[in-house]
Amino acid sequence: MVSEFRKKKYLTIFGYFDTDSNGKIEKKDFETMAELVAKSPDGTINEVKHKEYLNALLAIWNGLQQADTNKDGHVSADEWVAQWDAYAKNPAAPQEWQKVHCKFSFQVLDTGNDGSIDSDEFVKAYESWGFKKDDAAKIFGKLSQGKSTLSWAEFQKLWQEYFTSEDANALGNLLFSSPSP
Question: Which residues form the EF-hand domain (predicted)?
């Protein structure tokens, strides 16, 4: 049985994917998300990034179909939580869509495509998602433990910690934190 602590974290991510807030995740949510993350601050959509993000998000959606246990064409909050609970019980064997989700999350933040996330990249992305600039900078400082960048390996560890840890003080919990850490 999934703990309330982890369930709350899983539902936070569910809410990000449920772009129309209808209580279920559907293919159209992934299409909408691709547009949202490919949108630059001036409101234009970077077509190259949009295509890249759409491909990654549709790969996540396609893999996530196995979570639709009642085969109704969407993933409910309960089905979503069950997938992440299974992952938490065996994080050494993530499903392919979970690996793609992790990589996608990293790539969205690594706007310089140099294999690491720096503070400016992190803060700009988090600001575009509604975080206050100072809050985002504080979160990055904690996640990076004062270093100037987060590597792919460090990000993977934090990502896994977010989905598996029961420790409320685990650094990974900040990765998808609410706007007021």
Answer: 5-40, 97-132
Q: How far is CA 150 from the centre of its chain?
A: 16
Contact 159, 172 (CB under 8 A): yes
Q: What is the CATH number of the domain that holds 168?
A: 1.10.238.10
**pLDDT-above-70 percentage for the chain:** 98
Q: How many CB atoms lie within 10 A of CB 128?
A: 14
Q: Which residue has the tokens 């990974």?
A: 172
Q: What percent of the chain is predicted at pLDDT more than 90?
A: 86
Q: Indicate whether 180 pLDDT > 80.
A: no
* 71 φ, ψ (degrees, to nearest 5): 55, 45
Range of the domain at 128: 110-181
> Is residue 16 a contact partner of residue 176, using CB atoms and an 8 Å limit?
yes
At 178, the pLDDT band (50, 70, 90 cuts) reads low
pLDDT surpasses 50 at 121: yes
CA distance 10 to 5: 9
